[in-house]
Design goal:
Elements (H helix, E strand, L loop, with lengths): L14 H10 L6 E4 L3 E3 L1 E8 L4 E7 L7 H16 L7 E5 L9 E5 L4 E2 H7 L2 H19 L2 E2 L3 E2 L13 H11 L1 H8 L5 H12 L2 H5 L3 E4 L8 E6 L2 E7 L6 E3 L2 H8 L68
Antiparallel strand pairs: 1-3, 2-3, 3-4, 4-6, 5-6, 7-11, 8-10, 9-13, 10-13, 11-12
Helix pairs in contact: 5-6, 5-7, 6-7
Length: 326
């Protein structure tokens, strides 16, 4: 089957088509199993070989979530991580457009190690501290890479996709809309609390927009970090959600690492970020002062048009701890 003959329907890509993609990447080893599809942003299929290696095929199924820039961003994020000495599965082939196959994809080595959530759940307090010392070491490498502007990459780290600053974007995407609006409409939070949350962010937009910009993962979640435990030592073996890498305040990563979703127990280890482990060293450095926003910063007339974001209902039936690969 030639690449141009492959017909694609999300969730129904044939094994024959997958074998054709693998062979077109120059890999002719015997395939013994191909996993069923699972999806979270991108559809993924694991490909098992007779010699024991495993590859991962990630397929774009929604053009709004996986466009050409998104594929290229993951390529460049992989290269940057390799360059700064952070282990990452090798990217073997990719298609940033839909010309050849009718879909965009990435073919890479499968992740080694154990996801942070699973590792942390079985570790005692001593080992949990060791885990986060390793995370601090890894993310300090990432955050040492600085940039003059904040924003989403447009297929390359030197190109900005949207003119809006991430802090202002998230004001709408996460607070006024997105998760904040979802919680309000579901009656989980009150209107007064919703307004307080939005105002706390918006009142400090000038401060947030002048923060130093660094390379940031943005999604350093317990299901997108893989680690190994060998000879009493913990080390990061790979980072998923590579399409989320961008230029922004490094404390966005630190906050997610210290307050990960569904892992409230982690709060007892707030003292892990101490001088020497991370720069900036303390989470308290990220506390936003009560700065009044400029009058036009909160005016809806001055907000730029924001790209459409996937809404929570799309994922309401999915668990991040199932075997989703990002």
């Amino acid at each position: 089957m030639s690449s141009t003959e492959i017909e694609f329907t999300p969730g129904k890509l044939s094994n024959e088509a997958i074998v054709a993609i693998v062979k077109s990447a120059g890999i002719s080893d015997e395939i013994i199993k191909i996993s069923k599809p699972n999806a979270w942003i991108m559809e993924s299929r694991r490909i098992y070989f007779a010699d024991g290696k495993v590859l991962l095929l990630k397929i774009g199924t929604n053009d709004e979530w996986t466009d050409e820039a998104s594929i290229l961003n993951q390529l460049h994020a992989t290269q940057v991580l390799h360059h700064i000495g952070i282990p990452q599965p090798n990217l073997l082939a990719y298609a940033e457009n839909k010309t050849s196959y009718g879909f965009r994809f990435l073919l890479l080595e499968a992740y080694n190690g154990t996801r942070l959530y699973d590792l942390y759940s079985t570790a005692d307090s001593v080992n949990r501290i060791m885990i986060f010392e390793s995370l601090a070491y890894t993310y300090s490498k990432i955050h040492r890479i600085k940039n003059s502007w904040s924003g989403v990459w447009n297929g390359s780290p030197d190109k900005k996709k949207y003119p809006i600053h991430p802090a202002r974007f998230y004001s709408n995407a996460e607070f006024h809309g997105g998760s904040g609006r979802f919680l309000l409409e579901k009656g989980i939070i009150s209107k007064a609390l919703f307004d307080d949350i939005c105002n706390a962010w918006d009142n400090n937009l000038p401060y947030l927009e002048q923060r130093e910009s660094s390379l940031a993962h943005i999604s350093p979640f317990p299901w997108s970090i893989y680690m190994a435990h060998d000879n009493g030592n913990y080390s990061v073996t790979g980072l998923a959600a590579l399409g989320d890498f961008m230029w922004w305040d490094p404390m966005s990563d630190v906050a997610h690492l210290l307050y990960p979703p569904y892992m409230d127990k982690i709060l007892k280890h707030l003292n892990l970020w101490v001088p020497g482990n991370h720069d900036p060293p303390l989470l308290s450095n990220a506390v936003v002062p009560d700065m009044p926003a400029a009058n036009d910063a909160r005016s809806s007339d001055n907000h730029e048009t924001l790209p459409q974001m996937p809404f929570e209902d799309e994922y309401s039936q999915l668990s991040p701890y199932e075997d989703h690969t990002f």
